[in-house]
Amino acid sequence: MKKKIIALMAIIGLMTVLSGCTEYNQPITPESSGFWNEYIVWPLSQLITMVADWFNGSYGLAIIIVTLIIRFAILPLMIKQTKNSKAMQALQPEMKKLREKYSSKDAQTQQKLQQETMALFQTHGVNPLAGCFPLIVQMPILIGFYHAIVRTREIAEHNFLWFDLGERDIILAVVAGITTFIQQKLMMAGTADQNPQMAMMLYIMPVMIVIFAINFPSALSLYWVIGNIFMIVQTYFIKGPDIREVQAAKAKAGGSGGKKK
């Protein structure tokens, strides 16, 4: 699990570097050069501006609408990633048995463990790397939208609801943290006991989001909140049956325990 977390962080770090984060403080304009600026950030910036023009210059509403458009566009990838995660989770008992069977750390035994594990994946049609592909595809899109918000100077000059889009807002930052916690809680439902490292991230990530949100313009906090709400609804519909099954099993176990007493 530690290797998976390290690999995930490496992918995110690589995408961040490749996405041109060195230009974070430079406004995006038609003259901005480079593949990243010309084909990702500038078109997204123009899309935000165009939608804002449709709604009387409301850049806050434009951010909400474009966030939803992007989330719906990458929804098939997210569904694929979630299904692959569920398939991997279903194989955890079998993988645990294999690790117990080949517990010796010598090279020959570990090679046999790898062979048996790959055979298990092939038998059930599971690709352990399939969950990374959707992440690799969607990260440039999401980071590009992040850049478009920050580097479109018109956004910072407008208000939405009670806050200035170009200024920090503590209330919205806290809401971003709360929605991040709820979204991750749903994603990890039924797996926290099996993956203690991931369970730890359940509490670390919301705190990190709040810290980031407090130090960035509220336009980004708005983007995080809307994205999180979308993910909460999406996760509920995809993992809803599994969540209810886990809750029913716990209730049944608790009831049985009470009867025995």
Overall description:
The protein has 261 residues and is mostly helical. It has a domain of 173 residues. 77% of the residues lie in helices and 2% in strands. The chain is built from eleven helices and two strands, in the order ααααααααββααα. A two-stranded antiparallel ribbon has the order 1-2. Helix 3 crosses helix 11, helix 4 runs antiparallel to helix 7 and helix 9 packs antiparallel against helix 10. The longest helix has 43 residues. It is elongated.
In short:
The protein is mainly α. It contains eleven helices and two strands, in the order ααααααααββααα. It is a multi-pass membrane protein.
Layout of strands and helices, then pairs:
Layout lengths: L1 H17 L16 H20 L4 H15 L1 H16 L1 H10 L5 H18 L7 H20 L1 H4 L2 E2 L2 E2 L5 H18 L8 H20 L2 H43 L1
Antiparallel strand pairs: 1-2
Helix pairs in contact: 1-7, 2-3, 2-7, 3-11, 4-7, 5-6, 9-10, 9-11
Keywords:
261 residues; mainly alpha; two-stranded antiparallel sheet; 11 helices; 2 strands; 2% strand; cell membrane
Q: What sort of overall outline do the alpha carbons produce when their principal axes are compared?
A: elongated
**Which runs of at least 5 residues are low in confidence (pLDDT < 50)?**
none
Estimated helix fraction: over 70%
Q: Could you say which structural class the secondary elements and strand pairing correspond to?
A: mainly alpha
Order of helices and strands: HHHHHHHHEEHHH
Rounded to the nearest angstrom, the radius of gyration is: 22 Å
Separation of termini? 37 Å
Give the rounded overall mean pLDDT.
Answer: 75
Largest sheet: 2 strands, antiparallel
- Put simply, the count of helices is 11
Q: If strands are numbered along the chain, what order do they take across the biggest sheet?
A: 1-2
Strand content: under 5%
